[in-house]
């Protein structure tokens, strides 16, 4: 980070010093110094990008290839400008102008490739952002560049618009790309290139206005803008792009950079308000651009609301799923041990006492060993379904682990009712079940206890009674009996 700040400080200082010094230089020398600085910065970037071509792959390689072309063309164009200043060959200026235009057009493409790809709703939302920001930037350009250039130089509005459209689109794409909530490391290259594109577009528009008003080309910071843009590209070339993976919706809405597209829109509102007060009316072109821009802003907000709504529904569903997973057995979907203790304690607190049944399967291990664990899982799922079918809606059935199940009856029960429920369970389990293409039968041993104690104590008593049932020959029901006093 310190290295980046140092490089930026050098670039900004060079651009600022040039802007201060250039008015004191002869016109030709001032342009030559600018050409030298831009050629050095852009040429250095081209060399750095060229060295990285073989090191990168996929989207990253395309990004550095565009970087080579863009910075290389810009350096070459300014070298031609410099040769023209020295030797007086105007044809070189024409060739250089075309090279500069192509280089400027490639810059936002390289910036876009240096950022992670966008897909689906995020891509559609990004396109709307670019269109809306482009409309706002064009409105500002119309107010301060196109209308003035047409009035003072005789340049037609259509021709002036054609000259400014590439800069407007480049600035809009740059601002939207910079606004994405990229990682600290991965965001350096695209944001530096985005800043370069914005600065270059601003310098070109100011230079066009300067020419229309017959002011020196470097006036109002245009000279520093060209140098600064080239310097930013040179700094950006040294940073690798982020991983070739989507940013994700979680990063699409967060971060301070997200407000960046609203800056030109806000400035447009303020500027048109001032224009209305100053002149008393707005150009029809400006009115239609504003209407289109704000229609896109509304569409963007509608899309955002829909995305946020779908994310809220998805999040709610995920929370419910996580809650279910935390409180239910993954195999049988019965409440797990934690949920059994939580809900069982609530039932005891509500009624003052409860009946607790502990069930351990008989004959489960032989099935599991002979047919495999998948067959054992099928048996456990079938047992869970049969338990749910023989209890009432207010009763609690849970799988505690392995082949152990526990029940808490929903209302205080007498001994006869508890025995009736236990008999139904054993009768249900005795029916054969088809597992892995075979008919198998399992049984169960049940321990019962009733009382007003805490659930942990009642469960311990039911467990003791269940082991007594197994000791009595399995497939039986035993009630907990207090041990005889010694």
Layout of helices and strands, plus pairs?
Elements: H1 2-21, H2 27-52, H3 58-87, H4 90-113, H5 120-153, H6 157-179, H7 188-212, H8 222-236, H9 262-279, H10 284-327, H11 337-351, E1 354-362, H12 364-371, H13 373-390, E2 396-401, E3 404-408, H14 415-430, E4 433-435, E5 438-440, E6 443-451, H15 455-471, E7 477-479
Parallel strand pairs: 6-7
Antiparallel strand pairs: 1-3, 1-6, 2-3, 4-5
Keywords: Membrane, Transmembrane, Transmembrane helix
Domain GGDEF: 352-482
Protein name: GGDEF domain-containing protein
| Mean model confidence by pLDDT | 85
Q: How many β-strand stretches?
A: 7
Order of helices and strands: HHHHHHHHHHHEHHEEHEEEHE
What's the domain count? 2
Approximately how much helix is present in the residues?
55-70%
Explain the overall architecture.
There is one protein chain. The chain is of the alpha+beta class and 486 residues long. It has two domains: 2-316, no CATH class; 337-479, 2-Layer Sandwich (Alpha-Beta Plaits), CATH 3.30.70.270. It contains 15 helices and seven strands. The protein has helices spanning 2-21, 27-52, 58-87, 90-113, 120-153, 157-179, 188-212, 222-236, 262-279, 284-327, 337-351, 364-371, 373-390, 415-430, 455-471; strands at 354-362, 396-401, 404-408, 433-435, 438-440, 443-451, 477-479. The strands form two sheets. A five-stranded mixed sheet has the order 2-3-1-6-7. A two-stranded antiparallel ribbon has the order 4-5. α3 (58-87) packs antiparallel against α4 (90-113). The termini are far apart. Residues 246-253 have low confidence and may be disordered.
């Amino acid at each position: 980070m310190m290295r980046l700040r140092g490089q930026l400080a050098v670039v900004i200082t060079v651009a600022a010093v040039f802007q201060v010094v250039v008015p004191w230089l002869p016109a030709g020398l001032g342009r030559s110094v600018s050409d030298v600085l831009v050629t050095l910065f852009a040429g250095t970037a081209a060399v750095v990008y060229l060295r990285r071509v073989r090191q990168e792959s996929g989207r990253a390689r395309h990004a550095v290839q565009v970087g080579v072309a863009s910075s290389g063309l810009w350096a070459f164009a300014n070298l031609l400008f410099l040769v023209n200043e020295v030797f007086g060959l105007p044809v070189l200026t024409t060739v250089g102008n075309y090279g500069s235009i192509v280089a400027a057009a490639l810059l936002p493409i390289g910036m876009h490739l240096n950022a992670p790809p966008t897909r689906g709703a995020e891509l559609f939302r990004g396109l709307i952002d670019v269109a809306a920001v482009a409309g706002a930037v064009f409105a500002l350009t119309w107010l301060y560049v196109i209308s003035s250039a047409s009035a003072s130089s005789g340049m037609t509005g259509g021709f002036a618009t054609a000259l400014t459209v590439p800069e407007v689109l480049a600035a809009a794409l740059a601002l939207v790309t910079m606004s994405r909530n990229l990682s600290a490391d991965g965001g350096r290259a695209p944001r530096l290139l985005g800043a370069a594109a914005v600065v270059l577009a601003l310098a070109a528009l100011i230079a066009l206005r300067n020419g229309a008003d017959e002011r020196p080309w470097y006036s109002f910071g245009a000279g520093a803008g060209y140098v600064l843009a080239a310097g930013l590209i040179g700094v950006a070339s040294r940073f690798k792009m982020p991983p070739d993976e989507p940013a994700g919706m979680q990063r699409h809405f967060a971060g301070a950079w997200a407000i960046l597209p609203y800056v030109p829109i806000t400035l447009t509102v303020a500027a048109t308000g001032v224009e209305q007060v100053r002149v008393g009316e707005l150009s029809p072109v400006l009115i239609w651009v504003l209407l289109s821009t704000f229609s896109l802003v509304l569409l963007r907000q509608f899309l955002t609301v829909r995305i946020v709504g779908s994310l809220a529904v998805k999040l709610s569903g995920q929370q419910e799923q996580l809650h279910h997973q935390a409180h239910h057995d993954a195999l049988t979907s019965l409440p797990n041990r934690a949920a059994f203790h939580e809900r069982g304690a609530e039932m005891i607190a509500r009624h003052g006492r409860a009946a607790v049944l502990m069930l351990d399967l008989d004959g489960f291990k032989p099935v599991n060993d002979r047919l495999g664990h998948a067959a054992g899982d099928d048996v456990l799922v079938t047992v869970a379904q049969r338990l749910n079918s023989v209890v009432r809606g207010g009763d609690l059935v849970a799988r505690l682990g392995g082949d152990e199940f526990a029940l808490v009856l929903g209302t205080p029960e007498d001994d006869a009712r508890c025995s009736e429920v236990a008999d139904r369970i054993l009768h249900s389990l005795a029916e054969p079940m088809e597992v892995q293409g075979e008919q198998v039968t399992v049984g169960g041993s049940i321990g019962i206890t009733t009382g007003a104690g805490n659930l942990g104590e009642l469960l311990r008593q039911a467990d003791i009674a269940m082991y007594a049932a197994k000791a009595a020959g399995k497939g039986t029901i035993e009630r907990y009996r207090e041990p005889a006093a010694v």
